[in-house]
Amino acid sequence: MSTQLAPPKTRRARFQDLGIRTASAAVLIPVALLGLILGGFVWDALIAVFFIGLLREWRALSHFEAPRTRNRFLLAGLAYAALPGLALLWLRNRPDVGLDDVLFLLLVVWMTDIGAYIVGRLVGGRKLAPAISPGKTVSGAIGGLLIGMLAGMIFAGGPLGLLPAAAISLVSQVGDLGESALKRRLDVKDSGNTIPGHGGLFDRLDGVLAAAPLAALLALLAQGGLPLWR
Q1: CA distances from 140 to 114, 116, 124, 178 (A)
Q2: Helix (H, G, I), strand (E, B) or coil at 196
Q3: Which end of the chain has fewer CB atoms < 10 Å from its terminal CB, N or C?
Q4: In this structure, are residues 205 and 85 in contact, taking their beta carbons and an 8 Å threshold?
C-alpha cells in the first residue's frame, strides 16, 4: 500500500515546490526590475540588501574549524559579493546608458541560463563537468551561449551586441560551474534558503555575480557615454 501511494506524494511535492518557486519569482523579479528602472537610491538600497543577504549566506557556509581558514573563506566571500555589487552600482549609475547596460547584462545571463536548460534537456549528450555538476551538458552550454548571444544582438539592435553577449554568457556559465564546485566541496545542496523554493541568493545569482565585473569592464572600454556593447 505504501509503495502505491509514494508516486502521488512525489508528484504532489513537486507541484508544491513549483508553486513556491513560482510565487517567489513572481515577487522577486518585479521588485528587482522596479528597483532597476527607478535607479538612484532605490537601486542602491536593493543592491545593499542583496549584499547583506549574500554575506549572511556565505558566513553560514563557513564551517571550518581552523580560524585562519575560516577568516580567509570569509574574506573571499566579502570580495565575491562586493565586486559584483560595486559593478552593478556603477553600471546603473552611468548617465543615460546605465539602465540599458544592466538590462543587457541581466537579459544575456538569464537567456543563457534558460537556453542551457532547455537545449540540455532536449538534446542531452556529453556531460560538461560531471564531477562538478552532473546535470550540465556540452549541448546545453553551447545552446545557452548561442541563445545568450542572440538575445544580446536583439537587445543591442545589431551585431555589435554579439561579442559582448558571448563574453558575458561564457563568464556567467563559468560562474555557475564555480558555484557548483564550491557547494560540492562544502558538501551542501544549496547555498542557503533565503528564497523559498529556489535555495539561496548565490544559487540564483551565480551567473550575474560572475558576469557583472566583466560588464563593468566592457562599459569602461566603451567610448564616452555609449552603452557597454559599443
Answers
A1: 9, 4, 7, 17
A2: coil
A3: N
A4: no
CB crowding 166-196: b at 16 or more within 10 Å, else e: bbbbbbbbebbbebbebbeeeeeeebbebbe
Residues near 203 by beta carbon (within 8 Å), at least 6 away in sequence: 179, 190, 191, 192, 195
pLDDT digits (tens, 9 = 90+) for 104-118: 999 999 999 999 989
C-alpha–C-alpha distance, residues 111 and 35, integer Å: 20
All three cell numbers of 117, joined, read 536548460
The C-alpha cell at 192 is 542557503
CA dihedral 175, 181, 183, 189 (to 10 degrees): 100
Neighbours of 34 (CB within 10 A): 12
Distance CA 167, CA 186 (A): 29
Q: Taking 80 as the threshold, does the pLDDT of residue 167 lie above it?
A: yes
**14 CB contacts (<8 Å, ≥6 apart)?**
none
Q: Tell me: the pLDDT tens digits for 129-143?
A: 999 988 899 999 999
Is the Cβ–Cβ distance between 140 and 119 less than 8 Å? yes
Listed by start position, the domains of the chain span 2-221
Classify residue 195 by its DSSP letter.
B
